[in-house]
UniProtKB/TrEMBL annotation:
Entry annotated with the keyword Cell membrane: yes
Residue ranges of every copy of the Phosphatidic acid phosphatase type 2/haloperoxidase domain listed in the record: 76-186
UniProt cross-references to InterPro entries, sorted A to Z: PAP2/HPO, PAP2/HPO_sf
Membrane topology: Multi-pass membrane protein
Alphabetized UniProt keyword annotations: Cell membrane, Hydrolase, Membrane, Transmembrane, Transmembrane helix
Top-rank lineage group of the source organism: Bacteria
Protein name (Swiss-Prot/TrEMBL): Phosphatase PAP2 family protein
Principal location listed in the UniProt entry: membrane
Length: 191
């Protein structure tokens, strides 16, 4: 069975591909040397609670919309939840197509805090957090919504690097995928 590699789409110059991989590897190696128990605990907390936030945001909007009889809020809940669901499916599909191994499997110098079993590209935590942040920011374009939403998404994304479970290019692709998914479903927002 032939495997597709997204990295084959990058410049055909072999040196460029190796340079990008060396860049990815070096960032993770450098981060692992600067870990502390406190930071590791904090970033594990962020990674472990990402799904709760991604489910809690639309659930909270829906509950508030039902309690307050607010149709717009219920529609926004549907938009955020739909964005998350579509993004999760697309992310899983891309992971199965690309099949990029996790950093700790590809390079013995990369020490992960724990070892997830699924493929690395793109970062699912990053794509889901950016989908939620983007959809919520589109639904409520106020600084006090946008700033914490993207602070959360950025922190979750960084946690994936810090923990040694994703390459920087996995995280960048996840952010682009998550943001794009939410933007592509903007038609679901209330008028």
């Amino acid at each position: 069975m032939m495997q597709f590699s997204l990295f084959a789409l990058l410049p055909t110059n072999s040196y460029s591909q190796h340079a990008l991989q060396r860049f990815d590897d070096q960032i993770l190696i450098d981060l692992s040397k600067k870990r502390t128990p406190e930071k590791t605990g904090f970033f594990l907390f962020l990674s472990n609670h990402n799904d709760w936030v991604n489910i809690g945001v639309p659930a909270g909007l829906l509950a508030a919309g039902v309690i307050g009889d607010n149709k717009e809020m219920r529609q926004n809940a549907l938009y955020v939840a739909s964005s998350s669901a579509v993004n999760a499916l697309v992310t899983m599909l891309v992971k199965k197509i690309v099949k990029r191994p996790r950093p700790f499997l590809a390079n013995v110098k990369i020490n992960a805090v724990y070892q997830p079993k699924h493929y690395s590209f793109p970062s699912g935590h990053t794509s889901t957090s950016f989908t939620t942040a983007t959809a919520l920011s589109q639904a409520y374009p106020k600084w006090y919504v946008i700033a914490p939403a993207y602070l959360w998404a950025g922190s979750v994304s960084y946690s994936r690097l810090y923990l040694g479970v994703h390459y920087p290019t996995d995280v960048a692709a996840g952010a682009i995928l998550g943001t794009s998914t939410a933007f592509s479903l903007r038609f679901m927002r209330p008028d």
